[in-house]
């Protein structure tokens, strides 16, 4: 939601990233909506697994981007992200993402296992 509340700042941050301008433009107009969809899917038991998969994919992509930045792939380190975690540097952001990525994967395994158990005993 922070991307939408301060859309101009989000847009500026995206254009400052080490991404092609065209990709940044696509992300500016699609990423907030995709994140909202993921959050809504997580709210309901029937769609929670789909929400976990979507959020996991988003976290994998962003964590990969952070890793590439830290490895010097892009030749420059852009400014950190805004929003809720704007005080984190790139290295701490990587650890933050890895932690929540592991939680997301654990959630996928837990829900999948529970659904298999329910199906097995029906």
TrEMBL record:
Domain of life: Bacteria
Family annotation (InterPro entries): Methylamine_util_MauE
Annotated localization: Membrane
Main localization of the protein described in the UniProt heading: membrane
Regions crossing the membrane: 20-44, 51-74, 94-112
Keywords assigned by UniProt, alphabetized: Membrane, Transmembrane, Transmembrane helix
Annotated ranges, domain Methylamine utilisation protein MauE: 2-109
Topological relation to the membrane, as annotated: Multi-pass membrane protein
Pfam families found in the cross-reference section: MauE
UniProt-recorded name of the protein: Methylamine utilisation protein MauE domain-containing protein
Species per Swiss-Prot/TrEMBL record: Mucilaginibacter rubeus
Organism ancestry: Bacteria, Pseudomonadati, Bacteroidota, Sphingobacteriia, Sphingobacteriales
């Amino acid at each position: 939601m922070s991307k939408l509340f301060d859309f101009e700042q989000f847009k500026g941050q995206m254009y400052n990233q080490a991404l092609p301008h065209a990709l940044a433009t696509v992300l500016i107009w699609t990423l907030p909506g995709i994140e909202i969809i993921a959050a809504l899917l997580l709210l309901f038991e029937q769609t929670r697994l789909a929400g976990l998969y979507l959020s996991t994919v988003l976290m994998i992509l962003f964590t990969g981007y952070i890793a590439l930045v830290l490895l010097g792939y892009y030749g420059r380190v852009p400014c950190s992200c805004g929003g809720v975690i704007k005080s984190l540097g790139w290295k701490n952001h990587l650890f933050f993402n890895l932690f929540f990525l592991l939680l997301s994967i654990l959630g996928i395994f837990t829900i999948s296992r529970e659904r298999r158990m329910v199906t097995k005993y029906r």
